[in-house]
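Example for tutorial group B:
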């Protein structure tokens, strides 16, 4: 489905972020990049996405500075995609989506993949918004200060 409206000029950071990476394929490409996928063919076979869609999404992620094209690490003439520092900052978002899905989209005994700390082999603690003073903060304890019209 084609985009009918762009939020790139919106004063809302959520709208701008969703405009850039909020579609299914872009988020799954970023997720796979965190899991070590680097090559076009590996993204395509792992995701089952059409070549044209993958080409478009990878191009947009590179143009946005989330991914960068690098020479293949094995010295071949292939190219690889790697997360930039900007792309690495999406880790928090991917973990938050994962944890929400674990809590709400699986039954109590339903198996699913598990994200663990490599140092301890323990699952990550639940991500929660934290106030500047260290308190866990709930939605009703926040407010968006909108720009005047």
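The residue assignment follows.
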């Amino acid at each position: 489905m084609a985009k009918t409206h762009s939020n790139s000029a919106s004063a809302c950071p959520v709208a701008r972020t969703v405009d850039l990476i909020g579609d299914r394929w872009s988020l799954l490409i970023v997720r796979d990049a965190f899991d070590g996928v680097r090559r076009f063919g590996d993204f395509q076979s792992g995701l089952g996405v059409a070549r044209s869609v993958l080409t478009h999404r990878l191009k947009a992620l590179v143009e946005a500075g989330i991914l960068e094209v690098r020479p293949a690490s094995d010295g071949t003439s292939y190219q690889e995609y790697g997360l930039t520092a900007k792309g690495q900052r999406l880790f928090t978002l991917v973990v938050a989506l994962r944890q929400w899905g674990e809590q709400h989209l699986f039954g109590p005994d339903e198996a699913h993949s598990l994200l663990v700390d490599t140092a301890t082999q323990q699952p990550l603690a639940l991500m929660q918004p934290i106030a500047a003073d260290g308190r866990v903060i709930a939605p009703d304890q926040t407010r968006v200060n909108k720009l005047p019209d």
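The mean pLDDT is 92. Compare this with the pattern of hydrophobic and polar residues in the output above.
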